[in-house]
């Protein structure tokens, strides 16, 4: 997808005493997604959104709409637009590198939104100097600046001729993994099941290629719209079958292309069968041995 021709932000990238003018472009876009409008089912007309006073029920004009922070019992601290603007940090439009870190040091859960950072006008040499230095040292850079009215922390990584600038979530915005995973029981996986899982993973090993993956939801919406236009209906899909615990081993074997248990399992099964046969034989011969002994 082509990068937007208009930069989202322009400023300066500074590391040490070196400064380079740069431009920031959005790396992702949702403009190609299917968009819907809300319409009146009876008339087919588009519905217009209005802000209504919750008590009087009357529409509130845009110039009368202000920000309000609820302090309880339907009471609000009202903030005028100029008061909200005064809280925006002062900015000299400089993206300052705070530190260089290993490329994989930041956990992916902190990643927010990716941008392309490019040199602007006369800053190509200084920009390339930082990019190649980071590439040779295999590091990323942590930088900060005021971006879209907020102080943001940004992760910079070399990418092709430019840099990927990823805004990072603040720590208070990221949920604790321990809290999210606390209900997952401790289950010990070993033996044939673990071996088969590793085997299947090896069979599926590959590389990531973005163009190979489709947005199935968008494709389904397009099919639905086409079917509606043609007066057709789409067939209902059956929900996927969930693997149950007692069927898991067989599902793994089938995934690995095994119609029968593997040799190791056969060997174990053979030993178990031999042991059972031996035990049964011993049980049968015990009465006769007791008679001889008496």
UniProtKB/TrEMBL annotation:
GO terms for biological process: DNA recombination; double-strand break repair via nonhomologous end joining. This is Non-homologous end joining protein Ku. Residues 57-186 form the Ku domain. With LigD forms a non-homologous end joining (NHEJ) DNA repair enzyme, which repairs dsDNA breaks with reduced fidelity. Binds linear dsDNA with 5'- and 3'- overhangs but not closed circular dsDNA nor ssDNA. Recruits and stimulates the ligase activity of LigD. InterPro entries: DNA_bd_Ku70/Ku80, Prok_Ku, SPOC-like_C_dom_sf. GO terms for molecular function: double-stranded DNA binding. Belongs to the prokaryotic Ku family. It comes from Rhizobium meliloti. Residues 235-294 are annotated as: Disordered. Pfam families: Ku (PF02735). CDD domains: KU_like (cd00789). HAMAP family: Prokaryotic_Ku. SUPFAM superfamilies: SPOC domain-like (SSF100939). Keywords: DNA damage, DNA recombination, DNA repair, DNA-binding. Signal peptide: none annotated. The keyword Nucleotidyltransferase does not apply. The keyword Cytoplasm does not apply. Homodimer. Interacts with LigD. It comes from the Bacteria.
């Amino acid at each position: 997808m082509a990068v937007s021709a208009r930069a989202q932000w322009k400023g300066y990238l500074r590391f040490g005493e070196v400064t380079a003018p740069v431009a920031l472009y959005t790396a992702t876009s949702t403009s190609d997604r299917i968009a819907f409008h809300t319409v009146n089912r009876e008339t087919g007309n588009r519905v217009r959104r209005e802000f209504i006073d919750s008590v009087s029920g009357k529409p509130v004009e845009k110039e009368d709409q202000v920000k309000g922070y609820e302090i309880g019992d339907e009471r609000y601290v009202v903030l005028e637009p100029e008061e909200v603007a005064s809280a925006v940090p002062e900015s000299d439009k400089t993206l300052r590198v705070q530190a260089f870190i290993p490329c994989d040091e930041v956990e992916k859960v902190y990643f927010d939104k990716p941008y392309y950072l490019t040199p602007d006008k006369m800053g190509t040499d200084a920009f390339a100097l930082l990019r190649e230095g980071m590439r040779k040292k295999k590091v990323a850079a942590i930088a900060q600046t005021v971006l879209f009215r907020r102080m943001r922390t940004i992760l910079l990584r070399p990418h092709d001729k430019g840099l990927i600038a990823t805004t990072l979530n603040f720590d208070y915005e990221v949920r604790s993994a321990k809290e999210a995973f606390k209900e997952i029981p401790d289950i010990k996986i070993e033996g044939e099941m673990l071996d088969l899982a590793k085997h299947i993973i090896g069979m599926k090993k590959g590389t990531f290629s973005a163009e190979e993956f489709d947005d199935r939801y968008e494709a389904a919406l397009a099919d639905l719209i086409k079917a509606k236009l043609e007066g057709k209906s789409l067939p209902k899909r059956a929900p996927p079958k969930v693997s149950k615990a007692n069927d898991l081993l067989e599902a793994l074997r089938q995934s690995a292309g095994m119609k029968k248990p593997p040799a190791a399992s056969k060997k174990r099964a053979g030993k178990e069968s031999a042991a059972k046969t031996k035990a049964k034989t011993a049980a049968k011969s015990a009465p006769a041995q007791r008679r001889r002994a008496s």
